[in-house]
Design a protein that fits this description.
The complex is a heterotetramer of chains A (about 110), B (about 550), C (about 240) and D (about 350).
Chain B (H helix, E strand, L loop, with lengths): L29 H5 L4 H29 L10 H36 L8 H23 L13 H5 L4 H28 L12 H33 L12 H35 L6 H14 L15 H29 L8 H24 L1 H7 L3 H31 L5 H28 L13 H31 L42 H6 L8
Helix pairs in contact in B: 2-3, 2-4, 2-15, 3-6, 3-7, 3-8, 3-13, 4-6, 6-7, 7-8, 7-9, 8-10, 8-11, 8-13, 9-10, 10-11, 11-13, 11-14, 13-14, 14-15
Chain C lengths: L26 H36 L1 H9 L3 H26 L3 H31 L5 H6 L11 H37 L9 H26 L6
Chain D lengths: L16 H34 L16 H30 L6 E8 L2 E5 L5 E3 L1 E5 L3 E8 L4 E5 L4 E5 L5 E6 L4 E7 L12 E6 L1 H9 L16 H7 L2 H4 L21 E3 L5 E3 L2 H9 L22 H13 L20 H8 L16
Parallel strand pairs in D: 1-5, 4-10
Antiparallel strand pairs in D: 1-2, 2-3, 5-8, 6-7, 6-9, 9-10, 11-12
Helix pairs in contact in D: 1-2, 4-7, 4-8, 6-7
The chains are: A mainly alpha (about 110), B mainly alpha (about 550), C mainly alpha (about 240), D alpha+beta (about 350).
Bound molecules: heme-A (2 copies), dinuclear copper ion (CUA) and copper (II) ion (CU).
The site of copper (II) ion has 4 residues of chain B, from helix 8.
Amino acid sequence: MADHTHSSHHITSRKTYFFVFAALMVLTVLTWLVAQVDLGWANDLVALTIAFTKMMLVLLFFMHVRHSTRMTILTAAAGFFWLAIMLFYTLTDYFTRGASVLPVLGK
Amino acid sequence: MNTSAAHPSAPTTAETVSERKNYLNADYGILSWLLTRDHKRIAILYLISVSAFFALGSIFAALIRFELLTPEGDLMQADTYNRVFTMHGVIMVFFFLIPAIPAVLGNFLLPIMIGAKDLAMPKLNLASWYVYNLGGIFTLWALVHGGVDTGWTFYTPFSTTYSNTYVISTALGVFINGFSTIFTGLNFIVTVHRMRAPGLSWFRLPLFIWSMYATSLVIVLGTPVIAITLLLVAAERAFGLGIFDPRLGGDPILFQHMFWFYSHPAVYIMILPSMGVISELVAAFARKRIFGYRIVAFASVGIAVLGFLVWGHHMFVTGQSMYAATVFSVLSMLVAVPSAVKVFNWTATLYEGSISYQTPMLYALGFIGLFTIGGLTGVMVATLGFDIHVHDTYFIVAHFHYVMVGGTIMGYLGGLHYWWPKMFGRMYPGFLSRLSALLVFVGFNLTFFPQFLLGYMGMPRRYWSYPPEFQVLNVLSTAGATVLGVGFILPIFYFAWSLKFGKKAGDNPWGAVGLEWDTTSPPPTLNFYTQPVVTAPPYEYNREDVHNRTTQEAPVG
Amino acid sequence: MASSPLTDTHGHGAHHHPALAHQFDSLDQQKESSTLGMWLFLVTEIMFFGGLFLAYVLYRGRYPEAFLQGSNTLNVWLGGLNTAVLIGSSWTMVLAIWAAQVNWRKGIVIFLILTMALGSTFLVVKAFEYHHKWEEHHIPGKLGMFFNSPFQFAGDEPQHVEIFFSLYFIMTGLHATHMVIGIGVLLVLTILAWKGHYGPEYYNPLEMAGLYWHFVDIVWIFLFPLLYLLGAHVH
Amino acid sequence: MNPQPSSFQVIPEAASTLARDVDALTVVWTLISLFFTVLIAGLIIVFMSRYRRRHPDEVGLPERAPIWLEIAWSVIPLGIMLAMFVWGTLIFYKSYRPPANAVEYYATGKQWMWKFQHPNGTREINHLHVPINQPIRLTLSSEDVIHSFYVPAFRVKQDAVPGRYTSLWFEARKTGVYHMFCTEYCGTEHSKMIGSVTVMEPREYEDWLASGGLGGGAAGQGTSLSGAALFENLGCETCHRTKGGGGLQRGPVLQGVFGSQVKLADGSTVTADDAYVRESILNPQAKLVAGYDPVMPTFQGQVSEEQLSQLISYVRSLGPAGAAPAGGTGGANAGPGDAAGGQVDANAPQTAGPAKQPTQQ
Ligand code: HEA
Ligand code: HEA
Ligand code: CUA
Ligand SMILES: [Cu+2]
């Protein structure tokens, strides 16, 4: 079996878990606080950045991606990549439609 | 492929086959089948279910063809016809073609071909069969209560609002069936990664395994999207939500994006396994390593990945952005390249081969020819200017039957004929089976070639009645379907016959190489007598030690 | 032995752990297989919820005002509470695994029960929120009519707000369904842990259930800002 | 009214500017496909005979896969495809962008008919009359499900999507009558959602418009038609079909209605007389027949007074048994009325539903 490294029985300490938990809570409060302010176009960007950070914390520490095989990381990444494909290409249609609604040439 | 120790002291002569313990006689009784976790038995269970659905789908095909004999709809009412082609499409696609090769041949062979005792998750595998049947029951329930009339594509808002047929239960049936597909795909990926025999590196895998692997990737990444899409359709219909309903501010085109995001890759779920089968058949019957093995292997993965980027080519005339259409068109051409590479490599494999014309090989050669036509017309319809004319005409119907029937089913039947002696230890009659291969080929072309012409002449699909000038070609098509039907029915009889009366096949009737031919026919429950160790790449027909084994050939008929 | 088919490794010699299934050669192989299988399953979950996120993005872009209004009818406090509850449950979940790793068998049970308790709290809060929606006539489509609370919305674009609520109910509803399944799985594991099935050398099922549980948490981490906080800046 | 092509032809009549482009593309693609199919099939046949297994122990020669071959057969098809892609896309863009002098027409799809509106407001159902050599832009919408407007002779197709507008354009180059199909599956009568496009010389088109726009399907036939033909032309018969005609019954069967007592949705009854039929056509929703949905469109503005009376007399001619046949202004049975006439003649009295049995004579 060529591709896998031996998975370690790594034991993360309780302290690490606690810090991750605390960070997640802080970020939750943060995202709530930021949401009270109108940042215009950045509203979603900030909210999603925070959510993304929280996700990475959960993935890396709680789901032990930090200590997993390359195969696991690849699998998880593929999931998100394909989601991006679906969103990107579908929205490409919607965002470039304006042009075809006014398809008059030479006017 | 070669193993260091196949089964040194295991009985090898054909006479002892029946006394030997194998997966078929290891255990008796209906429960030993219904509760089995043996991938080979589950494959047989699937074979039965899938064949039943194929028969059902074919009956609907026959009804379609009879209705279209005359321009006026006189055999059945328009409503009935709409239900007939919908059930034909739904059953053929979701309950036959998608599971056919993976769940039957893949299930049976994948663990054996990689030298494993079973799939990684045998219980999940059994669950997959039950879930498949549960989904089937939902669909059949809809069928007996009057069917569905949305077309297999379930386009909204027709399916969510206007149809008054059993859309919800059919959608749920397909939704549930999706889980069974996912279970199979997931199981295959894990098995290929984690359970390969010692020495069996990625580039020693048979191409069938590569294609099953690529198929499984598509299954895992694509199927959940059709699941959520159909769930939304069911929910929208049941609860009057507005997600796809323009009257409530929803967008019906969103449905099409979500549907085709899965359903285009799904056509590769259908064709990739078949391509894998063809690689095995061509190598075995030309007694030659597949030309450009690595490239063919990568082509499978390439098709799987690129196949996700082209779904918009089903929506060229829906009012999709013309720029999106352009992108989808060019990407569709890219995905044709790996397919083309495969076709050329198979053909080149024949060069300097030692070709024998056993039944499976006839199917394989039929596949190459028909898939080429189907694929080329696929690329034609991927060309924007051409598609606006032929979209939703019989040209499309012809295209996809060429790839699905001429491609996938030819591959499936070829594979079934090739591995039948391995699965049951018996041979089927050679003449009859060759005849049926011929009938399928001729009947197929007679049925579907006229449809290309019909399509270009402008006959729209899903038409219950049509203008009289289209009649000639329709009659031709129906006549062809009759021949094709006979070709499909014949195997049912001789396969059944062979189970009891067929000649004992021996372990390696074709003189092929591959781990599956190194074990007994039928194989024992755990597949091998000793753990195989792989020392060479696949399809090594030129090595001396392999050479000897080819004398075992038991010519058919 | 050579002339009989490979026999089931079950019950062969003491060196095989009872949890080792017949198709595997070692516990390690088994563990890696299930880990990969679980991650692949999570990939299917990503794509499953992904379809909903796609619909969300599209309609959000098309009806921004309606989405703001819809979002503002949701109770941020309850949503926030639930976020905290879920994060807490993820924490107790990893602690259950930690307890197994350090061979504190009672700890496994305690933490699993805590996880389930937090999960149930989440569902109860959710139920209150749903009930409130019902009182406010914010249940979209025929569903509202069925529950005797036809959809009504006083603000602008009620139809588009209804789409927001359709998405809200489907997304949170499917999320809650996942929670229910998760709690069911944890219940089984709790019983097995109680019986002493898990310890430092074998706790794979805990790990797998944990992956699933955390994934459900991640979904919520995105749902919270997208559904609840979206309109928080306009009051 | 349907177009009758003179003979069997595989390439349909090319009657628009676009048709030639598409046909050229098709011919080239077909040749390419033919080439590759023949190449593959030919190689298979040659290898099959040349390398037939002659001895059961024989094996193939070791494989040599020169990389240049692999590259060649990836790059050459790719090149061909890209070239065809560019060509096809240019044609597509051309079909997408109407010329500046295009004239606006409107089409609305509705289960299961096409409603058209000419620039001057003239309306038609299931038939479209257009002048030759004039770019026409057709804006499409749908009242219910997705339909698709397709004229094979023009090689144009575009879905009509509810909730938004889409459009296509064409410039006809040959007078004649051509098929018009709905190609997006839309329910029961999808295959009956067909009609014709009549391409006329500009003068004839003007005449046709002047005559109220309700000429028949045949080119140049600008004369007004009898009630029976109107009944077909306006699409009445798509909803008011004869029993046994198959498909969904969207409107009441009209045989035997005239003179009978009709039960209305609000519970009252009314005698079906001239005024009632007139109101049913001009303002269908005013008196709803019990058991039917309010789906009948208004024909206000689409039928002239003259035509209205023709229609009424036609409905009167449908029965009940013993009612004054034909007569009236237009003389319902006088015109050609081939298709419609044949349809409605069949056992007229028996087809009336029980609720509409005549109670008085
Ligand atoms: C097994 C299933 C299968 C397969 C493999 C394919 C393969 C392909 N399909 Fe097909 N397709 C369907 C099943 C399949 N299709 C179905 C079911 C529909 C209809 C759905 C519905 O609406 O109901 C459909 C519809 C469909 C459409 C939509 C048409 C329309 O509705 O208007 C398009 C458009 O681009 C398309 C394109 C392609 C292409 C480019 C390929 C390519 O992958 C083909 C690649 C193969 C080759 C190209 C052949 C081999 C190559 C050579 C011999 C070399 C020489 C080649 C060149 C020089 C080009 N398909
Ligand atoms: C795996 C997929 C698959 C397979 C194998 C087939 C097989 C066949 N299909 Fe099908 N077809 C589809 C997938 C498939 N089809 C799909 C997806 C659609 C689109 C549906 C939609 O629009 O929604 C479609 C649509 C479709 C149409 C277009 C309908 C329309 O648009 O109006 C037609 C028309 O000829 C057709 C014909 C056939 C024929 C003649 C066969 C033949 O190969 C079948 C040969 C078999 C027989 C002729 C019968 C054999 C006899 C028995 C098993 C015994 C019992 C029979 C009797 C007692 C009568 N199919
Ligand atoms: Cu309208 Cu099909
Ligand atoms: Cu496709």
